[in-house]
Design a protein that fits this description.
The protein is built from 10 helices and 6 strands; from the N terminus they run H-H-E-H-H-E-H-H-H-E-E-H-E-E-H-H. By secondary structure, it is of the alpha+beta class. It has a single domain, classed as Cytochrome Bc1 Complex, Chain D, domain 2. The chain starts with a helix and ends with a helix. It is found in: Membrane. Keywords: Heme, Iron, Membrane, Metal-binding, Signal, Transmembrane, Transmembrane helix. Its main location: membrane.
Length: about 240
């Protein structure tokens, strides 16, 4: 027990550092029943993310079926490398090359919404800002010193950081509290917000594709148990009637 307690005290600072800075997260407001949003999110992922990030535990065919994309349409518009529709969603990037370019291989994103959270992903997608000191010219409010480019910049435009002076522990420090786009992107602010929500929605679906089915099954099971309880209660009353 003593070793366990000591181990926890040793590891807690590590977990705190891994958690990163405390930044208020924006609400993603996902809706897994919105197939139109999921389809737009899938399109964004295939066009802007798949070049570096894989979803190696998710298959094209399952994705198309779940979010209402006809298989021929999905094969034509969302599979760019000639993969079979039953294949896992992978790319051709070499991990060693990726490590040289980005400092580390880009992570698989199949379970990113479960590792982080939809709110974190949504805030992350909206929190890139121009930073000439970084290798790709951008940084991120919720992920300082991020090692990837802002791949959606052509949609959002170039964003700059919004800062304010705050008092912390008796000292005045400058904190980044948000970002603002210069309007040079292909989308308006509202359109980009929706695109970030669509992509986040897609990530949440991929993290647990059977969630809606599980929820529906759970409701049916609870309904069955409720009816069974009533029948069992009535049977008990009938059984004990003569005894009393």
């Amino acid at each position: 027990m003593k070793k366990l307690i000591v181990g926890l005290f040793v590891l807690l600072p590590t977990f705190a550092m891994a958690a990163g800075p405390s930044v208020p997260l924006m609400k993603a407001g996902n809706d897994l029943t919105d197939n139109a949003s999921l389809q737009r999110g899938a399109k964004l992922f295939m066009n802007y993310c798949l070049g570096c990030h894989q979803m190696q535990y998710q298959r094209y065919e399952r994705t198309f079926r779940d979010i209402g994309i006809p298989t021929p349409v999905g094969e034509e518009q969302l599979i760019f490398d000639g993969s079979k529709v039953g294949s896992h969603i992978k790319n051709a990037i070499d991990p060693d090359d990726a490590a040289k370019w980005f400092g580390a291989p880009p992570p698989d994103l199949t379970l990113i919404s479960r590792v982080k959270s939809p709110d974190y992903i949504y805030t992350y997608l909206k929190s890139f800002y121009k930073d000439d000191s970084r290798p790709f010219g951008v940084n991120n409010v919720v992920f300082p010193s991020v090692g990837m480019p802002h791949v959606l910049q052509e949609l959002q435009g170039v964003s700059t950081a919004i800062t304010e002076e705050v008092e912390e522990h008796g000292h005045t420090v400058t904190k980044i509290v948000g970002t603002v786009s210069d309007g040079s992107g292909e989308m308006s602010d509202d359109e980009y917000d929706q695109a970030a929500r669509d992509l986040t929605n897609f990530f949440e679906y991929v993290g647990e594709p059977s969630r809606l089915e599980s929820k529906a099954l759970g409701i049916k099971v609870l309904g069955f148990l409720f009816i069974l309880f009533i029948l069992a209660f009535l049977l008990k009353k009938e059984y004990w009637r003569d005894v009393h």
